[in-house]
Design brief:
By secondary structure, the protein is of the alpha/beta class. It folds into two domains: 3-42 and 49-114 and 221-306, Rossmann fold, CATH 3.40.50.150; 116-218, Orthogonal Bundle (DNA polymerase, domain 1). Helices cover 44% and strands 14% of the residues. The chain contains 15 helices and seven strands. A seven-stranded mixed sheet has the order 3-2-1-4-5-7-6, sandwiched between helices. Helix 3 links the parallel strand 1 and strand 2. Helix 9 (151-162) crosses helix 12 (202-218), helix 10 (167-180) packs across helix 11 and helix 13 runs parallel beside helix 14. The longest helix has 17 residues, at 202-218. The protein is globular. The N and C termini lie far apart (50 Å). It binds S-adenosylmethionine (SAM).
Length: 307
Amino acid sequence: MDDKLNVYHTPVLLKETIDLLFTKADGIYIDGTIGGGGHSEALLAKLSSGGKIFGFDKDPEAIEHCKEKFKNELEKGENSRIELFNECFSKACSITRHRGEWTGFLLDLGVSSRQLDESRRGFSYRAAGPLDLRFSPHGRTAEDLVNAVDEEELAALLRKFGEEPFAKKIARRIVQQRKIAPIRTTIDLARIVESVVPRRSLASSLSRVSQALRIAINDELNVLHNALHSALQCLGNRSRIVVISYHSLEDRIVKNFFRQFSKGEEASSSMPKIKILTKKPLVPSEDEVKNNPRSRSAKLRAGEVVF
Ligand SMILES: C[S@@+](CC[C@H](N)C(=O)[O-])C[C@H]1O[C@@H](n2cnc3c(N)ncnc32)[C@H](O)[C@@H]1O
């Protein structure tokens, strides 16, 4: 096996995450993005026999990986302290509500290293692969999107979700090009971007275009916004929310959500308040970035829910 594939994913800000998330050994914790299971593994080590982790991932391959990783625990059947769900984290509250109030809710957003390294998923613009970019094998792909939507919509999407300065030019060239032949691969798309952006901006533009398509395909911003709001119906008093995000659009949603509830704007008898535990977002240390360069854009925000 390729060496890179031996390590599924190195968890980011691991100690900081567990320190902020964990409050009770017999609590119920939701890992909404279980991925390679690194954060869950560290959390599990702190739980008593009465504790529970409900681990979610949209990617069936992540769930298969975690079935293997947590095999010994899962073999305990009803007494297993971990349960896995191949579902979107926005459904976590409706799926687990009848099991009791949550003690902690973790979201470590974005893509795992495994997903980036698997060129057939199309997540890395650096590797040749199909233009897929879906977390789950359902729904439309990035290929469907770039070959279908009109020029203006495409430009708007690249601007909104990628903050791409050459959005208009790239969208125009995509539409011209697909009249000649459909755009099928990461390389097809990279050539188009390369043909319109200045050389010095190429790497950043490629990264932003890929991000924009991924956000659009997976409806990532709406999903995050809805998941945070619906979690409030499941989180108990003094429970914790920890979110690690990797780009400013996600971070803004988390920041605004915490602010909105910390000021009590939404306060009513049924709505909780959020005490912000990270005045400024936590970021990885220089050492962590050196050892795991993919952690470099991470920002962690945490809050405590108070009724
Ligand atoms: C950065 S990785 C998480 C890594 C994990 N914390 C670990 O320690 O290995 C993000 C994971 O979130 C999953 N994901 C992204 N959006 C999701 C969603 N809406 N619902 C469920 N899982 C999602 C991805 O498939 C990916 O496996």
